Amino acid sequence: RIPLIIDTDPGVDDAFAIALALHSPEVEILAVTATYGNVSLARTAANVQRILALAGRADVPTAPGAARPLIHEQAEVAPDWHGEDGLGLRSRDYPNVDAIGQHTALSVKAEILRRSPIPVTIAVLGPMTNIALLLAIHPELAPKIGRIVAMGGSLGLGNTRGAGEFNIYADPEAAHRVLAQSEVPVTLVPLDMTMSCWAGAEWLDMLSSAGPRCATLVRTADLYREVFRERYGQDAVVLHDMLAMIEVVAPGTLAVTPQPISVDCTLGPERGRTTSGTGVGPSVDVALEVDSATVLTESLRRISAMR
Ligand code: BDR
Ligand code: CA
């Protein structure tokens, strides 16, 4: 099985991604670490525990990581999409969670990488701050990372303040380190791809009817669904992080094009923009195409096992 660490900021689509990984026999989830992102770190860290508990997997180690970006004090948040609690104002539907433990995302990841006899995959579903810190503090562990699969970036339009995609805009300096300054193989799943894969009402209804836990997960997306309906005029959602996770559990599902990626770290309107072909760094495998029907059917089949 593929050893896997998930670094995440739940987040509605993060919740679907975690549920997908938990119901994929190809991967062994060694830890789920939290970063600030869609909401504050205190909330994302608790949400990680809530999602694991909902799936009956409270045994999976969790730990909180960065509470803010590397350089800028103000963390970007997205409560308009994910609710103030990060779970679509539905966190009370989830099991109660314990206080967050003593370990940090950094120490948990380092320990896992040190001990693993085979390279570990890291799925990055939020800002890249935790990964940049890991690579900066433990460069000797970089060869133990088999690959990073990250949801983030856009070669076309961004979704946050203009040019940037949320996860990259939240901490462009961290993204620059991971995408343009590290030798770790990275598969990047940008908005160009995710925005072509819409899960509609029928998909959500089928998942909801698989059982009460799945129904809770789908209700988490009610607010998110409402925002999509208002902005795009259709009853369908884009579950960005779930689409990156399908590539983690079934490598090769997404067709990729290797290209250097540069991240705009200026403070102007271009901040957070990811550009292809202009970087001097190593190539990133960028997923630009997706067979939506296959990915949605496969995700539905797997997550439905949560019942
Ligand atoms: C990304 O930003 C977050 O709001 C989502 O969880 C996803 O990781 C999409 O731009
Ligand atoms: Ca996310």
From TrEMBL:
GO cellular-component term (any):
cytosol
Query: InterPro entries recorded for this chain?
Result: Inosine/uridine_hydrolase_dom (IPR001910), IUNH (IPR023186), Ribo_hydro-like (IPR036452)
Tell me which EC number(s) this protein carries: 3.2.-.-
Instruction: Report domain Inosine/uridine-preferring nucleoside hydrolase positions.
Output: 4-295
What superkingdom does the record give?
A: Bacteria
**Any keyword Hydrolase?**
yes
As recorded in UniProt, coiled-coil segments are none
Taken from the record, one Pfam family name reads IU_nuc_hydro
Q: Which UniProt keywords apply?
A: Glycosidase, Hydrolase
GO MF annotations for this entry?
Answer: purine nucleosidase activity
Record's keyword annotation contains rRNA processing: no
The enzyme's main class, written as a single word, is: hydrolase
| GO BP | purine nucleoside catabolic process
PANTHER family under this entry? INOSINE-URIDINE PREFERRING NUCLEOSIDE HYDROLASE (PTHR12304), URIDINE NUCLEOSIDASE (PTHR12304:SF4)
- State what protein this is by name: Pyrimidine-specific ribonucleoside hydrolase RihA
Q: Which organism is it from?
A: Pseudonocardia autotrophica
